[in-house]
Amino acid sequence: MSLGRIGQQAKQCLKNQLEYQHLGAFVPSTSNAESVLEHSWAADERHRNGSPLSTIDGQLVAIKDNICTTHQPTTCASETLQAFRSPFSATVVERLKAAGAIVAGKTNLDEFGMGSHSVNSVQGPVKSPGTISASQRSVGGSSGGSALATSTRQCFAALATDTGGSVRLPAAWTGTVGFKPSYGIVSRWGVVAYANSLDTVGVIARSVEAAKQVYDVIKGHDPRDPTTMSSLTRSRINLHLSHRPRNEHLRIGIPREYLLKELHPSIHKHWSLVLQSLRRKGHSIHLTSLPTTKAALAAYYVLAPAEASSNLAKFDGVRYGKKAPNDREKPNVLFSNSRGHNFGAEVRRRILLGSYTLSSTAMDNYFVRAQKVRRLVQDDFNQVFAMKHPLLQHRQEDPSSISTDENGEGTGVDIIITPTSLNLPPLLSSLRSHNKTNDPTNQFQEDVYTVPASLAGLPAISVPVPCNDWQQVGLQVVGQYGDDELVLDAARELEGVLKDGAGATAR
Hints:
Shape: globular
Number of strands: 10
C-alpha cells in the first residue's frame, strides 16, 4: 500500500509521537499507527480522485482526554475514570471523522481541566522539550497535551476545551494558535463538564488558517446540546453582521485595566511593538476601559468551582467512578469514602470551594455576587465594542454607556488586543517548590487576561509572538459575541505583522 502526500504527513506525525512520547503530550496507548495509516491511504485516494471530504481530509487531529471517543478511553487524567470507555463519541469528534480527519490520539491535561500547568494528571505532567529536565518549562493548562502535541508536529491540530483560558494559555506558552469560539457556537455534547456555563470546545493549531479549517468543521447547531445556538439564532446573528459596515482598518481597543504592573516586562515590550506595527499599517489604537476586570478573576473562581462541585458529584463510586475498598466494610454506608477517594488534590480543593460557596449560609455572599460581577463584565464589553451584542438588541441602551474615542465620537472598537498571559512559562521545577505547593492561588493569576472573555462568552484567540527557546509570548484578540470571523481575520492580520518581524527587537 503506497502512501501519498497525506499518508507521508501522517507517517511523520507518528514518528514525532514516538520521538516526543517522553514529554507526556499523549495518553499512552490511545494512538493506533496501523489505523492511522489505513485512514491516510483512504484520504490519499480521495484527494487523487479530486473528491476530498473537506479541507482537513486526512489530517491528524488530537483530542483532549475530556472529550468522549468510542475507540479510546476517556479518563480526564483522573484515577477515578481510568476504566471508563464511552459508548459514544462527542459531536465534535463525529464531525471531524465525517470530514475525513483522523483521530491522532487523546491528549494529556490537568485532571478534569482544573489547572494552569498540565501537572495535575494521573498520567504525569506534560513537559516542554527542554534539553535537560532542569530546563523544562510549563506548557500551560489545562490543555497542555493538545498544545504540545501540535507545537511538536505530532498532529496537524488538536481539539481542546476552554473554561477560563485552557486553550489560550497553553497556546501562548507553546508557540501555537489557540482559538476559543463564542459560547454556544460549538457543541459540548460528549464533553465531560467542568463548568457548563463556561466550557467551550476550541482549537489549537500552528496557524490561524489551520485553526479556522478545523473550526469550520466542528461548529454548528447540535440538537443534543441545548446550549448550542439554534439555526434561527445563527441566522439572526449573520443578518446582524451583514448590516455592519466593515472598514479596511481596525479600531483596536487597549483596556487600561490590563496594563498591570505585574505584567512581565518582555511581554509588555512585545505587546507595545506589535501595536506600533499595527498602527503603521493603518489600524488605530484606542485606550478603553473594562472596570469590572479587577473583579473578574475572583468571580470566576467562585462560579467555576461551584459548577464543578455539582458536575463531579456523579463520580461517587455508585454509577460513575471507582468505589473505595473500605466502603464495603462499613454497614449502612453507601459512598462516604468513595466520593473523593480517587480525585487529585486540586480537584478536591475546587469541589470543596464550590460546595462551600453554594451552601445556604454562603451563597448570597459569594455565588450570587459572582453572578452579578459576571453580568457587569459582559456589560463592560458591550459598552466598548462598536458592534452591539446581537442577542441583546432588545435591551434599552443607556446613552452614557456608549464608548467614545478621544474626540468624543461614539464609535467603539472592533477588537481588543491584550497579552494572553501575565508571565513567561515558569520552570516545572519551580512549580514543585515548597512555596508553590502550599499556595495554589499562584497558578490562578495566570488566568487574569483570559477569564474576562470566558465570563462574557466572547470569541478570543491567542497568536504566538516569536521568542527565544521556550520563553514564549502570546497576544490575545477578543471580539464581540458572535463576531468570530472578525476575530479570526484580525488574528490573520496580527500573524502577518509578526511574520514581517514585529517584536523582533524585543528579544
